[in-house]
Amino acid sequence: MILRLFAWPVFHLAYTVFAALPRPYNVRMDAVNTRYIMIWDWNHSMANHNITFTAQYTFSQTQSDESSYTGMCIRITEERCDFSRELDYSGSYTLRVRAEGRGQMSDWYSLTFIPDEHADLGPPSHVAFDPGDAMLTVSFREPMTEQNTPMTSVLTMSFSLQYWEKHSHSKKQENVFDTTEGTLFPLKPWTEYCLQVNAFSKPYNKTSPYTQQQCVRTLGQSPVWKVLLALLGCVLLMTTVPVYRCHKKRKSIVSKHTFPSSILQNTQDPISLLLLHPEESCVATCVVAVQVEQTSQGQQQQVKGQGDVEAEQDSGSSSIQRGQGSSSQDSGIYSGEDSGKRSAGSTTTSQPEETH
Q1: Mean pLDDT lowest for which of 5-9, 56-60, 71-75, 206-210?
Q2: Where is the composition biased (Polar residues) (predicted)?
């Protein structure tokens, strides 16, 4: 009986210890200007049911008093809580968060947060340029609070403007302004400059990142060498385009022309062949068909025909032209049809009659 009385409290204590939820971890603040967001992580594999979170805050000097905490996010499922509306920039606070689920609660994870020390300073925005003769007027918008008011309402700020010629990034120059507008001069006329701006506060030891690099060209009289270079470029463009078009048109005309197969098979350039004289560029081919005869009389006629052909070929192009005007029997050159007929006739007449 006595053992039972002691066993139950021990079992209940052990169950409470082992069944308690783990608290959130990797708790951190995303704080820029007057935006204060607490972010944390939690291992959801540690529970088989839905888990919610509760986040609270209090002033650092009253953190030991549980009743002084104010609930900012109550039973939320997101792993973040926005404290921007409640915390003052110059205050010192204690923030805490815990996990909850099915009547179980984890331990609190607490951290100290002082906005004017821990919050980052954001960069300016809306950078604009007004170029002039060898000068630039730069204007921009200072960092803003979550209530869309200038950050100069909560801290003192100055602005640093870096500028350089676009192709001389290593030669940066810097001007400091106390207002959101400044003028850079003297600059080179008709020259492209790149600029970037940041904000800083010496009393609070804060410096913002620089804005994204932007480039603009100054006004003024252009250098003589740039004018001459532009004129030279125009002249080259005006002369190159017509020549290119003429060459392209000539090439397309030549490529569309169809040449005879005898010229295309020649190893010489087709254009040079077109420029030759007609008697040099034409080739005449004569074909003579002679029927081989079995008799001695037919063989003599064949030899005679071949001799006439050789003599006709040696005589050159003039002999060929005369041969075309004369009859086939005079020149010894026959067409395919006449040659066939003559060969057939020769064969018929040259055969001897059989003696019975």
Answers
A1: 5-9
A2: 344-356
